[in-house]
Amino acid sequence: MKYRDASGNITAGLAVSTYTLAAVPASAAISNLATTGFRAGWNQNGNPGGTTYTAEISKFSNFQPVLASSITVNTQADFTGLEVSVRYYSRVRAVNRNSVVTAYATTAPGYTLANPPAATQVTGVSSGGAVTLAWSGNGNSASTVYRVARSLD
């Protein structure tokens, strides 16, 4: 850049550069569910390669508190070491090269998978054919729902 002062003299100045604002990531979703983790993924939504993203997870929809976060230039982040059979919320935002952040893109909540029940046993059979079963939760949360299927084969 060049500058002209009040007397008409031209002097060289410093070159100034800035970066465009990043776009909010799109199509955020939770996938690769496992008993103690999952993947949060998103579309870069026109952001150039090398854009930094901050992904966060929480057990609460208001993200108070944030349980874990990941800063990455990828379009996914893996979260591990989570509790079994628990609902988690995920969100992600982009950061441009001037450290200006976008709004968050949020995912639908996802549940880590349940462990299979342990020590399953038949504890009773009635004359009418009803069967009573018992099992151990095997580390699953108290809110875990179990489904039992019966077959005559």
* Straight-line distance between termini: 84 Å
Topology pattern, helix = H, strand = E: EEEEEEEEEEEE
Biggest sheet character: 5 strands, antiparallel
Portion of residues in helices? under 10%
Structural class: mainly beta
Overall pLDDT confidence: 91
Beta content: 35-45%
Number of DSSP-assigned strands: 12
* Model regions low in confidence, pLDDT < 50 over at least 5 residues: none
Annotation field: number of helices = 0
Principal-axis shape equals rod-shaped
Q: What is Rg?
A: 26 Å
Report on the structure:
The structure is a single chain. With 153 residues, this protein is mainly β. It is built from no helices and twelve strands. The N and C termini lie far apart (84 Å).
List keywords for this structure.
153 residues, 43% strand, 12 strands, five-stranded antiparallel beta sheet, 0% helix, mainly beta, single chain
Please give a quick description of this structure:
The chain is mainly β and 153 residues long. It contains no helices and 12 strands.
Ordered list of secondary-structure elements with their pairings:
Blueprint lengths: L1 E3 L5 E3 L13 E9 L2 E7 L8 E7 L9 E5 L3 E5 L6 E9 L9 E2 L3 E2 L6 E8 L5 E6 L17
Antiparallel strand pairs: 1-2, 3-4, 4-7, 5-6, 5-8, 8-9, 8-10, 11-12
